[in-house]
Amino acid sequence: MDNHIHVKLISLEDIYKTKCFDLKQIIQIIEDALLAYSNNEILLPDKISQIFNEGLQTRINCMPSTLLKEGVCGVKWVSVFPNNPKLYNKQNVSGVILLSEIKTGFPFAIVDGTLITALRTACLGAIGAKYLARKDSSVYGTIGAGEQAKTHFLVMKTLFPNIKTCYVSSRSNVSEFGFVDAMKTKFDDVEFIMCNGDYDLAARNADIIVTAVSCQAPLLKADSIKPGTFYCHVGGWEDEYDVALKADKIVCDDWSSLKHRGSPTIARMYEKGLLKDTEIYANLSDIISGKKVGRETDLEFNYFNSIGLSFVDVAVANYFYKTVTSKGLGTDWSLQESDAFDVLKDLDFNK
Known about the structure:
By secondary structure, the protein is α/β, with parallel strands linked by helices. 35% of the residues lie in helices and 25% in strands.
């Protein structure tokens, strides 16, 4: 009996070496995955979240899903520890993605999930903007200046090359400076303006607003949002309730998954009875497929919130696996060479 199990380890460095960061390709993979989900071609069990600190939402999530047409089942194991940068000088998000084929059930790859988490989240926000923001958007405002905020700007600028001004606000001037320092050499056509923690300044002139913060507080105010703005909500409680109530359209990656999560602003509103199912305009796949229209006027204010769907991570991980291995990269790991019982029968249980 052939019980050999060989797994390919795909590191962040492997992904970097292949230069497989074609954002437009990744965005297309994500859009295809969302459409597959709406066509019942995806299995998506409930996410399991172990929360260790309710206030900070320190947690480890276990998120399984299956791409039926591709014959790939995956599980994402991701941690979110918001105090890591301050306490330990470590990133606040880390993760891995395990891939198995569904013919025999054998695992075939373990892929870095930290990069995929950052990319997937930012690409979903950019897809939301693609359909819900004004095409001529030129002013960008970010509340939050960490890794997720930087990744969002990278992806948004790819889809909206007309962005020429970026307001940056954070609780820390050091974070604001770090954002600007990282971005200004890559985008010399953009004027970066540090706001010294003034969230209103970051938002009030922006055509696209992104909140990507680790705190749980209503930083974005409704009065700071001008008509015609697109708002991308990334994490938990980041905006006051009046922001959602002001929106002409509220769109999610999947409302049925998001509304029971507790942390995001609109999920909190739903729990309190301040937001009804009927007030959610659409899931993103409804707009991608053409069942619903996206932005209709230059003056409407559109609100987008993605909760993160593991099948999207699995789809991107599968793409990275195929690309990396096609270049001869990745590390072979022999997980099992023998039958498990052959090992057990040779052990002396009398010791």
